From TrEMBL:
Part of the 50S ribosomal subunit. SUPFAM superfamilies: Ribosomal protein L13. This protein is one of the early assembly proteins of the 50S ribosomal subunit, although it is not seen to bind rRNA by itself. It is important during the early stages of 50S assembly. GO terms for cellular component: cytosolic large ribosomal subunit. The gene is rplM. The keyword Iron-sulfur does not apply. This is Large ribosomal subunit protein uL13. Keywords: Ribonucleoprotein, Ribosomal protein. GO terms for molecular function: mRNA binding; structural constituent of ribosome.
Length: 142
């Protein structure tokens, strides 16, 4: 018996739509990471990208538990000495709400070329409008 390895043209990618309105960030991010990596499919292979596309809308309305809204800090370094920047969850939510979901999902994917390829299939939008109507994404509940 041989191990089944899917070929590139055999992988069928679907589009999913997730509404983040009122959803808890971490629980939603784990579900998105599973879909992006293809772990929900029977043809899952760890070294291949077998995942699907995910469109997240209403990123502005995502929730967090506890005191994270005011106490969670996101760090960014410019690359220069003394260039460490930090923002709280609250500040980042006002400026770039889609960045919060991207960072949460990115931390759950592999830290290599494969993970970067998977992250490109995630599309996050702060409001309900998105340009992927032609792909006909099917809504799923997380």
């Amino acid at each position: 018996m041989k191990t089944f390895i899917p070929k590139k043209d055999e992988i069928v990618r679907k589009w999913y739509l997730i509404d983040a309105d009122g959803k808890i960030l971490g629980r939603m991010a784990t579900r998105i990471a599973r879909i992006l990596s293809g772990k929900d499919k029977p043809i899952y292979t760890p070294h291949l990208d077998t995942g699907d596309f995910v469109v997240v809308i209403n990123a502005r309305k995502v929730r967090v538990t506890g005191e994270k809204y005011t106490q969670k800090i996101y760090y960014h370094h410019s690359g220069y000495p003394g260039g460490l920047k930090k923002r709280t969850f609250e500040e980042l939510m006002k400026k770039k709400p889609e960045e919060i979901i991207l960072r949460a999902v990115k931390g759950m994917l592999p830290k290599n070329r494969l993970g970067r390829k998977m992250l490109k299939k995630l599309k996050v939008y702060p409001d309900a409008d998105h340009p992927h109507q032609a792909q006909n994404p099917q809504p799923i509940d997380v």
